[in-house]
């Protein structure tokens, strides 16, 4: 409780807001690349408390949201097969595939189970040697070490009935894709603290220098976020563009070397498609050849599935920070948590879900420089 109270102190929050107000002299647009930060911002109304010159843009920081539709359909296909126990974190079960989701598969008789760790799925494989156990391995760098450890342990234990359906993505290539997109308005970043706690900050200085943007590693509590914004605005006002660590209680420059070694042993970098955005080079991980026997995509031969997003869903533009959720005509009408068109409405880290949950139902006032729908172009 001490730390929850400490980083929610309203008097300290007001002081930080006053400092931001005293510092800012012109409009700035900052992007948070973390769905947890987005929910904290909307829940606490941080974006509404900031000076009008400071705009927060929600980026592709929700790992569930960026998992491509074709991977969801592969999960549905595998989970529907007899003899399979399909394991996933709970927020994947409502993510819509083509025509259904994992809840529907479970209702139709598929053995779909919610677990809290890939090691839970590994234990199921040990207890059910006659069943194929598949874990849905999604996420940013944060969840990769545990998924890598599960595969490492499966090989050590000689479990041949365990596999991963992998859709891991990496943040730095996404930042590069955002900055090179035609309609990009981002002038600074709040970097995700949990990602940097694993990988460190060594990949970010080159991006900050190349694109001339400050990058401030930020936590998730209100004071963490306000401090990140304060530092980013201060850099922008001074004409600086460097990496700052505003989350030192969790993040070191080198990250977690043991976790990084485990990732590098099991996974290798690959191109990856991001739902609603497109293919980003070197933006994901896949299992190395030495661990290919644990790759569910190949084990169940679902590599040929191809899909197309519903035209009325604009979640890709939300994920790129080109529009706010309320600027989508489907938001809160044909797209709700009970009948979602896209993952951003059902994920616990999705921007659309945050706006719906905390009753941000009105479209924002258009700002100068905001991209129109005609200007929006998918990230290549």
UniProtKB/TrEMBL annotation:
One of its GO terms (biological process) is protein maturation. GO terms for molecular function: 4 iron, 4 sulfur cluster binding; carbon monoxide binding; iron ion binding. It comes from the Bacteria. The keyword Transmembrane does not apply. InterPro entries: Hyd_form_HypD (IPR002780), HypD_1 (IPR042243), HypD_2_sf (IPR042244). The keyword Plastid does not apply. NCBIfam families: hypD. This is Hydrogenase formation protein HypD.
């Amino acid at each position: 409780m001490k730390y929850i109270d400490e980083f929610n102190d309203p008097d300290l929050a007001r002081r930080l807001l006053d400092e931001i107000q005293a510092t800012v002299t012109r409009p700035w647009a900052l992007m948070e690349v973390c769905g947890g930060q987005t929910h904290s911002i909307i829940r606490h109304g941080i974006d509404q408390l900031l000076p009008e010159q400071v705009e927060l843009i929600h980026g592709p920081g929700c790992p569930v949201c960026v998992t491509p539709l074709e991977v969801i359909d592969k999960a549905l296909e595998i989970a529907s097969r007899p003899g399979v126990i399909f394991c996933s974190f709970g927020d994947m079960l409502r993510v819509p595939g083509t025509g259904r989701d994992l809840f529907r598969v479970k209702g139709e008789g598929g053995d779909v189970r919610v677990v809290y760790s890939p090691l839970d799925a590994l234990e199921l494989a040990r207890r059910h040697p006659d069943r194929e156990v598949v874990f849905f391995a999604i996420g940013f760098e944060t969840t990769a070490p545990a998924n890598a450890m599960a595969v490492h342990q499966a090989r050590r234990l000689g479990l041949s009935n365990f596999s991963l359906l992998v859709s891991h993505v990496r943040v730095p290539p996404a930042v590069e894709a955002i900055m090179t997109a035609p309609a990009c308005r981002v002038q600074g970043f709040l970097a995700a603290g949990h990602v940097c706690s694993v990988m460190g900050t060594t990949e970010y200085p080159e991006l900050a220098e190349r694109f001339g943007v400050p990058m401030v590693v930020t936590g998730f509590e209100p004071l963490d976020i306000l401090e990140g914004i304060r530092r980013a605005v201060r850099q922008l006002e001074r004409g600086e563009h460097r990496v700052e660590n505003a989350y030192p209680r969790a993040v070191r420059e080198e990250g977690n070397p043991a976790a990084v070694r485990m990732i590098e042993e099991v996974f290798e970098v690959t191109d990856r498609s991001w739902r609603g955005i497109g293919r980003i080079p070197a933006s994901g991980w896949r299992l190395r050849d030495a661990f290919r026997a644990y790759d569910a995509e190949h084990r169940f031969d679902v590599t040929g599935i191809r899909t197309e997003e519903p035209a009325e869903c604009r979640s890709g533009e939300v994920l790129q920070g080109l529009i706010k959720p309320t600027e989508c005509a489907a938001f809160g009408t044909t797209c709700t948590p009970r009948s979602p068109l896209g993952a951003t409405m059902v994920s616990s880290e999705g921007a659309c879900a945050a706006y719906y949950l905390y009753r941000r139902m009105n479209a924002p006032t258009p700002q100068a420089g905001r991209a129109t729908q005609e200007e929006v172009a998918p990230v290549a």
